[in-house]
Amino acid sequence: MRIGDLAPDFELADQDGELRKLSDLLTNGPVALFFYPAAFTAGCTKEACHFRDLAGEFTEAGVQRVGISRDDVQKQSDWTAKHRLDYPLLADVDGAVARAYGASRGGLFGALGLPPKRMTFAIAQDGTIADIIASEIDMNVHADRALKALGK
């Protein structure tokens, strides 16, 4: 995926088991879609909570936040409750969406079913990629840059 590409559409269950489709989400505005390796890990919790803590800024900009990992619906639900996350977390259990976005680990790592890379896609309302953020060490850069790329 590159900036300017059309984001692949997908449909996955969120932490409540509700199916969410990217094209449906985009009817309500741009989407900050962030892939994270696994719920309940220190880095992912820091990243997810930063997205949570910027709720007001995202709302003001009209940008939706959506997280995605290979965790199942129950684990997503438990993590949401523990950290009061106020946005959808999607269960990409087989990793198909991560592969479509180039966020899966390649080669043997992917074949072993390892978690996706930590990547965020700032998706404009027309479905094009406005920015791609890839950092495994700076957990705050994902929300900050997505907001900057999609903010009005």
How are the SSEs placed, and which strands pair?
Blueprint: E1 11-13, E2 19-21, H1 22-26, E3 31-35, H2 42-53, H3 55-61, E4 64-69, H4 73-83, E5 89-91, H5 96-101, H6 107-111, E6 119-123, E7 129-134, H7 141-150
Parallel strand pairs: 3-4, 4-5
Antiparallel strand pairs: 1-2, 3-6, 6-7
What does this structure look like?
The chain is an alpha/beta fold and 152 residues long. About 3% of the residues have low confidence. Helices cover 37% and strands 20% of the residues. It has one domain: Glutaredoxin (3-Layer(aba) Sandwich), CATH 3.40.30.10. A 5-stranded mixed beta sheet has the order 5-4-3-6-7.
Quick structural gist:
This protein is α/β, with parallel strands linked by helices. The protein contains 7 helices and 7 strands, in the order ββαβααβαβααββα. The chain is globular and about 35 Å long.
Order of helices and strands: EEHEHHEHEHHEEH
Helix-residue proportion = 25-40%
Distance between the termini: 24 Å
CATH topology: Glutaredoxin
Q: How many beta-strand elements?
A: 7
What's the overall average pLDDT, rounded? 91
For the biggest sheet, the summary is: 5 strands, mixed
What's the structural domain tally?
1
Would you state the CATH class?
Alpha Beta
Q: What is the molecular shape?
A: globular
* CATH A-level architecture: 3-Layer(aba) Sandwich
Counting H and I runs of at least 4 residues, what is the number of helices?
7
Q: How are strands sequenced across the largest beta sheet?
A: 5-4-3-6-7
Structural class: alpha/beta
Q: Tell me the strand percentage band.
A: 15-25%
